Queue: 2 jobs
Job 1
Amino acid sequence: MPDAEPQLPDGAVAVGRIIRPHGSDGTLRVQPHSDNPARFRVGGNLTVAGNIRAISDFRPLPGGYALLRLDGLENLDAVRSLGGQWLVAPAEPAPDLPPGEYYHYQLVGLNVVTDEGENLGTLREVLITGGNDVYVVASDAGEEILLPAVAHVVKDVDLSLGRVLVHLIDGLR
């Protein structure tokens, strides 16, 4: 399982992770972790390894990956050490979503409770699987449970309470 998103200052969100260099011209193979495509628009800014860089090119690839070019990183030597680094963007602005839909960064950190009152832990990460998202929930004891983000499992999300209400169906433990 990939490492959880890093601890970020308020107002910042991890939007992707660098997998490795792609070619010798500074292009990076990345795995986007954002459900907001505007995060990768050409001319926008991302922070990588503590440096703010402008996006000069972004091309989605099959399988949930993409190719990314950042200004000032124009050869293999400039990007060789960036594998595994997180791409960070300001949390706002993000377009409003319809009621009942949430950005991943809004969900990470919420407390997850069953409809029977059991506290499962903290939503640590949202995995993008293609069919439906999967919530990685970590208990205080370090145990993990993977919950499919589907209507018969996720019953309610209340950002004001900082809570996700779930119904555990057979086989989820």
Note: The chain has a mean pLDDT of 89.
Job 2
Amino acid sequence: MVQIITDSSTLYTREEAEKAGFVALPLCVSINDTHGRDLLMDMDHFYGEIAKGFHPQSSQPPVGEVIETFEKYADDDIINISMADGLSGTYQSACGARESVANKDRVTVINSKTLCGPHKYMVEKAQEMKDNGATKEEILSWLEYAIDHQESFLIPQDFDFLRRGGRLTPMAATLGSILKLKPIMTQTPDGRQLDKFGVKRTMSSAFGVVIEHLVKVRKLDERHIIYVSHARTPKDAQKAVEMLNQALPKCEVRVLELSPAFVTQGGPFCVAIQWIER
């Protein structure tokens, strides 16, 4: 039997994941004197602390918890689908946990090279394949394909969150001098850092740059799902959806609200546009 394990980059709580058949271990989040787990924090309090000037921090699930989970499914073939290595220590932590368990030969840790929308879809599809009788090898083969057929863009409203998090290339870090503009970030080819894709004066024009790329370069169509994820800025998200629906009417567009761990990365009021091939 195959067991899918992942983390809260999928935006699934433990309980939601359990109902769907897989395991989702929540990342750890801290802000000021509040310490908790991703998707379990009071969001009004969380954003209130940010408004006071406190900056949140996130980290991977406790390694002991990962080890315990691997051992719980010792008789299964485990596929651990982790959020992007480099943007989090979650992948490396899972690899270390694998080396600590007796059933390590039955544990495969996958670096999804993405997070949130595409990561969520990878896990959902892997679980669907498992439920339909796919083998571990078949699921891994599809995941390898999916990792190479997805892309993410982030438009932060507070660039300082990214700069402080150290997830930028040196060139991208220089954007800190133009904070009044809207930098458009994308992942480096290895998925480990964020780099500059463009700069615009408004959110709408930033969305337009991304959408032009999706239309002219990526040529997205009905084979693709687009995710619009936001950090408590539904009006901006809705504007992005409207523009995407107009430019790419064949694509399915889904909206997600980011959890504390990813507000920590992108900052409050950021918007991400991501796509993955079905």
Note: DSSP finds eleven helices and 13 strands in the chain.
